[in-house]
Design goal:
mainly alpha, Arc Repressor Mutant, subunit A, 7 helices, binds manganese (II) ion, DNA-binding, DNA binding, HTH_tscrpt_reg_MntR, manganese
Length: about 150
Amino acid sequence: MPTTPSMEDYIERIYALIDEKGYARVSDIAEALEVHPSSVTKMIQKLDKGKYVVYEKYRGFMLTSKGKKLGKRLVYRHELLEQFLTIIGVNEENIYDDVEGIEHHLSWDAIDRIGDLVQYFEEGDKRVEDLKEIQQNNEADVEEQS
Ligand SMILES: [Mn+2]
C-alpha cells in the first residue's frame, strides 16, 4: 500500500511525539495536526492495516519497526528541507509552511540531491556568502527597475 501525504503527516508526527515524550496519544496527535480526534482514530485504523502502527493494551498505539523506519525518514526529510530553505535565505516565517507544502511531493532522489547541496553549503562559508552576494545583486536590480 503506497502512503498518501496525509498518512505521511501522521507517521511523521507520531514518530516525533514518541521521540519527544515516549508515547503518542490520539489527543496529542489531534492537537498537533489540528484535526478532530475521530479523524485520528480513522487514520490509526488505516495505518494499522498498513502495518505502520500496532495497538498495545494500556500503552495505546506504537509504531511497528516499519512505521519507525519510515517515521525516521520523514522527520529527517522535514528537517533537511527546513535546513535547505534556511540556507538559501527563505524568510523564517515562510519556512514551516513551505516545507509542509513540498515535502510530500519530492522523490527520495530529489531529497538526497538536496542533502548533497546542503552539505555543499555547509562545507564552505564562502559558498553561502557567494549566494548571498547574488541575492543582494538581484534585489538591487529589482529595486532599480521599480
Ligand atoms: Mn512535515
